[in-house]
Design brief:
Blueprint (H helix, E strand, L loop, with lengths): L4 E4 L3 H12 L4 E4 L3 H11 L5 E3 L3 H6 L6 E4 L5 H10 L8 E4 L5 H13 L3 E8 L1 H7 L2 E4 L3 H14 L2 E2 L2 E2 L9 H31 L3 H11 L7 H10 L10 H4 L9 H12 L4 H14 L1 H10 L14 H37 L5 H7 L11 H10 L10 H24 L4 H14 L5 H12 L12 E3 L7 E3 L2
Parallel strand pairs: 1-2, 1-4, 2-3, 4-5, 5-6
Antiparallel strand pairs: 6-7, 8-9, 10-11
Helix pairs in contact: 1-6, 8-12, 8-13, 8-15, 9-10, 12-13, 13-19, 15-18, 15-19, 16-17
The structure holds nicotinamide 8-bromo-adenine dinucleotide phosphate (NBP).
């Protein structure tokens, strides 16, 4: 045995993780189902560190020091199970299998429980940052046992991104906690991107600015509280011109957003947990809606003549400048709401599955390496550091002030979107959720009345304890149903 850790699955992600490990001085055993990938890695990058390539899984396992750490970086789903089945008979008690693919956390829980029976440690680890992140420093979210993290921690922390000397990697919690947090991270990413896309659309229709001008606006915004990787690359994409047509790149791309499924998983899980992640849900639905091309075309045609509000004249002069600033503030407020909901979901998942996740350290490990890296994650970390039991990020003093500051703009932007007929589902639902949270009374009381009327589902009262039912079809007297 000559390697400290092994990587099986050497497509873009596995290849770059292996190189990152080797560059940090860890000797890395290499394996891939098709040997060609292993060979090309060693041929092209063999001088970056110590690689120990093997053609067979048995030789690969034999080449790793015990207790072994084996990273599996294959396509999520059946391929992961196939690789685990192949590995298990070759491993010894105490060895660690790490799945760094995008697995569903429930699959990770199932695999962890099954491998524990074999005396093996199974770690599901979220890895964010795409192929560049994998090579130069991703954000790493490992779950699994404390024991497994003792072995993996030093290696993973050495290859992770680093912000202010702190690695973007921490032990998230037992079994599926890492993949759960990665799932919610991706859900937040959906919301963040949808909000950015709506901001762009509002600026374009609201002020008539072209994409190149809007690119400048985003660049400018990136110098302030919105500073983040996604805002930075938004400026990049909007400023890009299509070489073939000379038109703005964003105008030649088909406007149908695709998805690989982590947004959907996040929303499905939020429904199970009863956590209203409205911004993430709207963002996921907005992608689906964009793909319904036939329906979009039909509805557009049917209403072409009857809605004069749509595409009315853009704002100009000082009004346009004020609108740009309003959109910036509304974007920030909506973003705070979306992140607050994502963190609510992590807390609920942590409670449901007994993971004891430290919310502040999730903000810490997302500050670098990952797609949602942003300046304001520092503020989220501070909020949870000063009060780990915070009911909602919205009530942390920093965010309360920020949202209060942006509130008038938020309302103006949502109203303008409705007036112009510019779809802004994530901005609108975020504001609606905020207003619902702060309302003194909600019409939920009427819903309870309706449920009691048609189905005798009972209700509770504001003025005394107990459960009640009104005899709606009878004399309308009230019965106690305790
Ligand atoms: P892919 O998801 O494209 O998977 C290709 C790898 O899976 C190859 O090594 C392939 O081997 C192997 N594989 C397959 Br497919 N079926 C197999 C089987 N039955 N047995 C053994 N090996 C099998 O690779 P990727 O894009 O590098 O992503 C790897 C994982 O990382 C995925 O779970 C992905 O969701 C996750 N991830 C990707 C990104 C990203 O930006 N791409 C970011 C974060 C996480 P072969 O060479 O023999 O075909």
């Amino acid at each position: 045995a000559t390697a400290r850790i092994g990587v099986t699955g050497l497509a873009v992600m596995g290849r770059n993780l292996a190189r990152n490990l080797a560059r940090h001085g860890w000797s890395v055993a290499l394996h891939n189902r098709t040997y060609e990938r292993t060979r090309s890695l060693v041929d092209e990058h063999g001088d970056e560190g110590t690689f120990v390539p093997s053609e067979s899984m048995a030789d690969f396992v034999a080449s790793i020091e015990r207790p072994r750490s084996v990273i599996v970086m294959v396509k999520a789903g059946e391929p992961t199970d196939a690789v685990i089945d192949e590995l298990v008979p070759l491993l010894d008690e105490g060895d660690v299998i790490v799945d760094c693919g995008n697995a569903h956390f429930l699959d990770t829980r199932r695999r962890e429980a099954a491998l524990r029976e074999h005396g093996l440690h199974f770690v599901g680890s979220g890895v964010s940052g795409g192929e560049e992140g994998a090579l130069h420093g991703p954000s790493i979210m490992p779950g699994g046992s404390d024991h497994a993290y003792e072995t993996l921690g030093p290696m993973f922390e050495s290859i992770a991104a680093e912000v202010d000397g702190t690695p973007c990697c921490t032990h998230v919690g037992a079994d599926g906690a890492g993949h759960f947090v990665k799932m919610v991270h991706n859900g937040i990413e959906y919301a963040d991107m949808q909000l950015i896309a709506e901001a762009y659309d509002l600026l374009r229709h609201g002020t008539g600015a072209d994409p190149a001008r809007i690119a400048e606006i985003f660049s400018d915004w990136n110098g302030g509280e919105l500073e983040s990787y996604l805002i930075e690359i938004t400026a990049d994409v909007l400023g890009h011109t299509d070489a073939e047509t000379g038109r703005p790149f964003v105008d030649v791309v088909l406007d149908q957003a695709e998805q690989k499924g982590t947004g959907r998983w996040t929303v499905q899980n939020a429904l199970e947990l009863g956590v209203p992640v409205t911004a993430i849900a709207e963002a996921t639905f907005a992608r689906s809606l964009s793909g319904h091309a036939d329906q979009r075309e039909a509805v557009r045609a049917a209403y072409a003549q009857v809605d004069p509000a749509v595409d009315s004249a853009p704002l100009a002069g000082e009004e346009a400048d004020r609108f740009v600033e309003d959109v910036r503030r509304a974007l920030y407020a909506s973003k705070v709401l979306a992140y607050a909901q994502g963190f609510d979901q992590i807390r609920a998942g942590s409670d449901e599955y007994g993971w004891g996740i430290d919310l502040g350290s999730m903000a810490t490990i997302w500050r670098g390496g990952c797609i949602i890296r942003a300046r304001f994650l520092d503020r989220i970390r501070e909020a949870y550091d000063s009060d780990p039991d915070l009911t909602s990020l919205l009530v942390a003093p920093f965010f309360r002030d920020a949202v209060a500051d942006g509130l008038p703009s938020w309302r103006r932007v949502v109203a303008t979107a409705a007036r112009l007929g510019v779809p802004a589902p994530a901005f609108s639902t975020s504001l609606a959720s905020f207003d619902a949270l702060r309302a003194e009374r909600l019409p939920a009381a009427l819903i309870q009345g309706l449920r009691d009327d048609f189905g005798a589902h009972t209700y509770r009262r504001v003025d005394k304890p107990g459960t009640f039912h009104t005899l709606w079809a009878g004399d309308r007297s009230e019965e106690s149903r305790d």
